[in-house]
Amino acid sequence: MALGNIPDDIRVPLVWIDIDNSMAMSGAPAQSRKILVIGQQVESASAEPLTLNRITGDSMADEYHGRGSMLAEMLKTLRKANSYTETYAMGLADIITGAAATASITVVGDALAAGTLALLINGVSVQVGVAQGDSAETVVQSVITAVTAKTATQVSAVVDGENAASAVLTVNWKGVTGNDCDVRLNYYSGEKTPSGISVTVTPFTGGAGTPDIQAVVAALGDDWYTDIVFPYNDTQSLNTIRDELLERWGPLKMMEAQLWTAFRGTHAQTGTFGSARNDWLISCIGTNISPEPVWLWAASYGGTAAYQLAIDPARPLQTLVLTGIKSPARAVSLGHAGA
Q: Is the pTM of this model over 0.85?
């Protein structure tokens, strides 16, 4: 028997070992995955818009794209689910012609007992201390102070100019995406409003405008990203990025990529949205009316998928847990009889 480096006519008794690695790579090599996260940044961002920056830590996300921005919070959410896959970010400047979505928190009455007002804004817990005897105006000031201290809420808070007992929440950027922000009261079991006061929360509305996704496509150049996390689900934005994905999958580029996004709505709204699209390169997860907005769902979804598919490209994804994402309230769950 002939071996690679051991002659077959040696007469000296011994154990001779030779390793032949000529067939070691007979199969297809594993694909290295690379994530791109796209989203809006704020004016305090240090990164130039439409530039690509590698992100290796949460502090870099805040520095490059601004604390409390859509993109910074997307990156931090993704890293909760997957801090291993190589990740890049592209920040978009705020929309010039558009409007930021707003919501309101209105308080009525005086507190009869001390307690805690338990708010949840974009999935971030905001605990507001209430002392016995606090007026509605005092409680609102406490709400504003507590919200301002939590930049991860991605909103600012000020007193309503027409009602001192109401706080106005404004999303940190312009665009229709802001309408998917969430604010709610007493999400967790056991939370209750302090006695003597009532609180009315109005949802986020009024956000208008979409970014120029064609500029995003141009800025991508010929860099290859296997997974793209995308926060926008309006028709124009999805169509523009879909056309780019199809070209990348074509024979002239051969830079395959999968896009991960999300849609917020009721069962009926989600069904209507899904029926209107048939994009085999875009995977959109329905969030129902979840505490976290769609861009955070997309980030956790894309990060989780990129990690798991690197292990097994054929692995089903429907049983995986989305780290950092809370479930909708039971009353509006898609599986609830009354939904």
A: yes
